[in-house]
């Protein structure tokens, strides 16, 4: 159900270039096969009421689209870009090379190398071109990191992050309490 919702978001973005709310976070991925992982970023950002757009942008198969996406993101009002890719995962690094916006990379486990190929392709950026890389397949953390970045200049959003942290802590304490009994 959740995946269907994200897929419909994706289709809306492809067919409608004039979303009613300006997206603050761009969620892009190299292939629609990344969607089962990358949907988690959209879901957590939705929980924080952060507007997003979801797009397929491939560094290798649609290089012109990758350039135009990265070069237009800032002026379109995007504040953070989350980029997921698998295998020879060049998308996050290339996007970071083309925009001054913060880029968060999600290594997608997509090949026979168990995601290590994706992780190393994304994390081993040269000095001067940073990509904040999260764990393999952990698009939720990419979304949460984007919320934290936005929270620096948005007190209301930051307060919700604190609340999220408190809830996370309480959930662990409840489980620990149950174990003790
Ligand atoms: C990468 O190649 C994509 O990000 C995806 O993770 C991987 C495989 O893509 P498909 O062959 O499934 O389209 O560019």
TrEMBL record:
Entry superkingdom: Eukaryota
Recorded GO CC terms: chloroplast
GO terms of molecular function: ATP binding; metal ion binding; phosphoribosylaminoimidazole carboxylase activity
Protein name: phosphoribosylaminoimidazole carboxylase
Originating organism: Escallonia rubra
Region of the whole protein represented: 418 to 598 of 607
Keywords on record: ATP-binding, Decarboxylase, Lyase, Nucleotide-binding, Purine biosynthesis
Family: In the C-terminal section; belongs to the AIR carboxylase family. Class I subfamily.
GO BP term, example: 'de novo' IMP biosynthetic process
């Amino acid at each position: 159900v959740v995946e269907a919702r994200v897929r419909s978001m994706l289709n809306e973005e492809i067919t409608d270039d004039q979303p009613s709310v300006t997206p603050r976070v761009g969620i892009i991925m190299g292939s629609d096969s990344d969607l089962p992982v990358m949907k988690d970023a959209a879901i957590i950002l939705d929980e924080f009421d952060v507007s997003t757009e979801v797009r397929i942008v491939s560094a290798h198969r649609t290089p012109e689209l990758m350039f135009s996406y990265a070069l237009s993101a800032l002026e379109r009002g995007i504040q953070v870009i989350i980029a997921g890719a698998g295998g020879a995962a060049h998308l996050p690094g290339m996007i970071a090379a083309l925009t001054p916006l913060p880029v968060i990379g999600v290594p997608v486990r997509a090949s026979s190398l168990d995601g290590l190929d994706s992780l190393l392709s994304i994390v081993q950026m040269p000095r001067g071109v940073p990509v904040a890389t999260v764990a393999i397949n952990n698009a939720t953390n990419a979304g949460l990191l984007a919320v934290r970045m936005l929270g620096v200049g948005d007190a209301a959003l930051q307060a919700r992050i604190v609340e999220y942290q408190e809830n996370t802590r309480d959930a662990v304490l409840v489980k620990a309490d149950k174990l003790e009994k």
